[in-house]
Backbone:
């Protein structure tokens, strides 16, 4: 069966007039480094008789999982010899490492969704175009459209740039929500920021409600929830409307004043970016805004009261506004310079299919993007993953250029420290300064 598929894929390669992948006659200069649809000169997988060499990068905590799945991939193609080397690279730093030397980077690598645009612009990712779809059809019995249909829409959007899919979704749990101690709070208490903070003061025995404000990833949730936006332009600059009025009629001034009120509450603790886990472990918190990566410390800290839910609403005038969030996915892409791109695409698809995502959840509690895997009873019963999936209805895909992060962090720090006076004029001036810095041209 496998030999018949090999013949089929080689025939396809000849029809498309593509050079055999990994055959030695194809050099870097003749490949399309941008990986744009219709421009690649890389071929479908080579046949048996040669060793297919691939390199794979993944997070340190995923090494055991990846090793097991790579062995399963080899078993799926027993007539083919593989040499697949697995290396360590965090999803959070993958872009920086890859762009240091794209040709020397791994053939397949995992990365956070907010890195996609820069990787594509630099020509580092292979487009999952019609050619690659035919490779999948011949070898895996699916097309790129099938891959899209198998995963939740937000993860597919995260993997798409200029209407082209450039990566396979691996998870859909990259967001934040509220962990809380159910021995301290009732379900009604955690519905609003006002109720949460009041209950913490009354029953928290000195413990605080924690959140990171000094981060454009976390503090943006208040503005996104009110209908404000950020965007990334083709030149890498950012658009932002936070100093105006949202379509819902709420002003940026009102959102900021609500945040200032929360930050000033004695029961609130502004936690530095990256320090949430430490503060949970310290036992100082009875509720905290964080993500699935803090499930273990939250469960240990809250014990039998361990619970999680969507973010609370906050008060603007006489209305409650749902706190939004940034939702996203982890992705797996193929290097545009990969010499064995067809096999690399097949491996990336295998590592992100329903079976692999199910095993990834079972081994590491990673929230699947695959719809079938996501709908399993085990996933639904997971406290943290269930909360992030519930919060996803209020989440947006954050689009922002490089100038966004520092001004947004500084703005959040000022709110956390109470360094912005609460009157309308002072808040408006702070917002205008924020927008000016975020939307500045790229030098």
Residues:
């Amino acid at each position: 069966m496998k030999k018949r598929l090999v013949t089929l894929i080689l025939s396809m390669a000849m029809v498309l007039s593509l050079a055999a992948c990994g055959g030695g006659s194809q050099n870097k200069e003749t490949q399309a480094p941008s990986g744009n649809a219709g421009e690649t000169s890389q071929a479908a997988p080579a046949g048996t008789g040669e060793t297919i060499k691939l390199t794979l990068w993944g997070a340190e905590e995923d090494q055991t999982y990846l090793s097991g799945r790579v062995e399963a991939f080899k078993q799926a193609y027993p007539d083919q010899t593989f040499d697949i080397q697995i290396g360590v690279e965090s999803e959070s730093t993958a872009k920086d490492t890859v762009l240091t030397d794209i040709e020397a980077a791994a053939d397949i690598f995992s990365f956070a969704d907010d890195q996609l645009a820069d990787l594509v612009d630099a020509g580092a990712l292979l487009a999952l175009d019609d050619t690659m779809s035919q490779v999948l059809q011949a070898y895996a019995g699916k097309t790129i459209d099938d891959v899209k249909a198998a995963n939740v829409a937000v993860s597919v959007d995260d993997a798409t740039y200029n209407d082209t899919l450039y990566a396979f979704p691996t998870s859909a749990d990259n967001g934040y929500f509220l962990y809380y101690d159910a021995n301290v709070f009732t379900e009604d208490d955690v519905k609003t920021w006002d109720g949460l903070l009041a209950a913490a003061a009354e029953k928290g025995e000195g413990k605080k409600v924690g959140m990171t404000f000094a981060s454009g990833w976390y503090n943006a949730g208040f503005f996104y929830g009110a209908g404000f936006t950020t965007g990334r332009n083709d030149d890498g600059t950012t658009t932002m409307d936070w100093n105006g009025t949202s379509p819902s009629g709420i002003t940026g001034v009102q959102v900021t004043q609500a945040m200032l009120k929360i930050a000033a509450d004695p029961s609130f603790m502004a936690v530095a970016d990256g320090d949430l886990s430490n503060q949970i472990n310290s036992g100082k918190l009875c509720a905290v805004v964080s993500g699935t990566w803090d499930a273990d410390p939250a469960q240990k800290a809250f014990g039998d009261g361990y619970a999680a839910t969507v973010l609370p609403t906050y008060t603007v005038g006489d209305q409650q506004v749902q706190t939004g969030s940034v939702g996203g996915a982890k992705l797996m892409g193929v290097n545009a310079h990969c010499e064995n791109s067809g096999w690399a695409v097949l491996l990336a698809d295998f590592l992100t299919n329903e079976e692999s995502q199910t095993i990834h959840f079972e081994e590491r509690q990673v929230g699947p993007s695959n719809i079938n895997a996501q709908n399993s009873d085990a996933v639904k019963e997971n406290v943290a993953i269930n909360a992030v999936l519930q919060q996803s209805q209020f989440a947006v895909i954050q689009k922002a250029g490089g100038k966004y992060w520092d001004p947004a962090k500084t703005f959040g720090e000022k709110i956390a420290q109470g360094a912005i006076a609460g009157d309308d004029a002072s808040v408006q001036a702070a917002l205008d300064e924020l927008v000016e810095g975020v939307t500045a041209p790229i030098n």
About this structure: The longest strand covers residues 51-58. The radius of gyration is 24 Å.
